[in-house]
Amino acid sequence: MKKLATKLKDQITGKLLIAKTLMRSQCGENFVDTAIKILMAVVIGGLVLAGLYALFGETVLPTLKERIQEMFNYAG
Fold it and tell me: Distance between CA atoms of 42 and 53, rounded to whole angstroms?
């Protein structure tokens, strides 16, 4: 019975030491840092997509539309 009590006490002490070490650890990331990184990625991605849409909408698509119309224009 004494061995069981000692073993249980050692296990609890070990778990408490692990928990204490994890709580004192300062090498992890905060949730705010992660949220800011995600927000930055979304904003930058949105800006890139808006730029591509503007480029394709004003430069590439009208030229492409003209070429397709010329290609299927059998009258001339």
Answer: 16
Give alpha helix (H) positions in the chain.
2-24, 31-55, 61-71
Task: Give the chain's domain count.
Answer: 1
The whole domain housing 65 covers 2-71
Considering the domain boundaries, does residue 76 fall inside one?
no
Structure pTM? 0.45
* 27: Cα within 13 Å, side-chain hemisphere: 3
Q: What is the mean pLDDT of each run of 10 residues along the chain (76 residues)?
A: 87 90 74 89 95 81 82 76
Question: Cα(38)–Cα(34) distance, rounded to whole angstroms?
Answer: 6
